Amino acid sequence: MFGRIKVRVPHLMRREKFEVRTPAAVCAVRGTEFTVDTDEAGAMNINVLYGEVKLNFTVPPEKGASQIDIPQGRNMTLAEKGKPGKVALMTAEQEKSSLENWNPGLSPSERRKEMKAKDNDRAQMREFARVTGGTEDSVKSFLNVVKESDLEAGRTLKDIHGNTVRVDQRLMRPDSSTLQFFNLVK
Hints:
Order of helices and strands: EEEEEEEEEHHEEE
CATH class of the largest domain: Mainly Beta
Strand content: 35-45%
Helix content: 25-40%
CATH architecture of the largest domain: Sandwich
Number of strands: 12
Radius of gyration: 32 Å
Largest sheet: 5 strands, antiparallel
Number of helices: 2
Distance between the termini: 76 Å
Shape: elongated
């Protein structure tokens, strides 16, 4: 195969396999989304969006391994058949062009529409996490203030076993001439 293709492979059963054969290599995957751009001479560019691609060279390079594992978020560029490839992080532009909808009937703005919606959702989740984190921090701060005030007032103490206990002091008047003072330990 040569040209440009975007592949989304669901999780396959144990004996099932999916391969993309190019003049330079064979790409085997399971539960992966990736793009392959290749020409007749064997030059190839692979972008792995999700999952992992195992690449076996049809003509092994003189130097280096005959099989390369390309993990998620990485790009492998092969200049020509028989030469070793370079695996590197995908650039933002490579990632955007690979993630867009490749439906040939869509205009360029429609192809990126889904990505814009995902970016908006991510921004909303980040904002929610930021606000929630701030709320949690204020609750923790308030609880620390309450604990400190309890310790200062003597309402929270350590018993002889090292356990933190809460002491509640009560004053009762069973009749007009007596006072009863007692501590409740919780």
